């Protein structure tokens, strides 16, 4: 299960070991009475390495703001006119920040917030905590109230609203599933769920289905599993927008008989496109996407395979790359466009 999550960052984004020169990230100074963004902007949640520690932060239009001096990561972000809401973990505990003020979720064990939204000024969040050395338990938070999704092992990896209906994606004792209004819907006997979306009652779930020794990466539609292109090694995000289904993930692209290169991919209703770096000797890793009427934003990194694996935090807008300047080693987990 862990290998599948964007939320365990070291498995995907390589390299948070060396000490770096750094600019001083600013602490956010926002309150609920202020307007967050009059003209909109691009918000990215993530982490930077500073003083040999990974620290939670976010970027607003390329300006970095540090959330906490403790070890942690900002894993999801949701923005309104007056609120910047960020979920993640700090010192191993699941938490969220509302306009820079940290709220720790009161559950035993270490864990993370995997998804967060604000609806009618109520905070909703999904996540999981470690209950013992190997078991995890999924949880869901609504306002001040938090509860486990079941009485045994599991996790919550994502959630969406479809009108008045609430869908929570995850797993129940190793079975990929989702909960619709707290009622569990099983998808298969074994596997993992990464992301889901639901629009007008149409539910699509992305993840990994395992049968015996066989593992397939793909989606469940009407609870039936469809395997995707074999180049996909992992999926990161799923979105239904304007009648089309978009899938984001990472895989490999063949270069020649001597090897291959890693790249991000976007699948649009079965049409696969590579998320390309600035040059042909760099690879890409993608982690999130945000779709608006003006285009698609894809968040990730580009890695120069010829210059000591130098990596750049960036996003692509309609396939055009935009580098987010950072003198620290930086990683982006989620993107939100306001």
Shape: globular
Evaluate the radius of gyration: 19 Å
Helix content: under 10%
Main sheet overview: 4 strands, antiparallel
**Mean pLDDT across every amino acid position:** 86
For the record, what is the CATH homologous superfamily label? Peptidase/esterase 'gauge' domain
CATH class: Mainly Beta
The number of helical segments is 1
Beta strand %: over 45%
Stretches where pLDDT is under 50 for at least 5 consecutive residues are: 1-27, 29-39
Count of discrete structural domains? 1
Helix-strand sequence = HEEEEEEEEEEEEEEEEEEEEEEEEEEEE
Which structural class fits the helix and strand makeup? mainly beta
Largest sheet strand order: 3-2-1-28
Measure the end-to-end span.
32 Å
**CATH fold annotation:** Methylamine Dehydrogenase, Chain H
**Number of DSSP strands?**
28
Q: Examine the secondary-structure arrangement and name the CATH architecture.
A: 7 Propeller
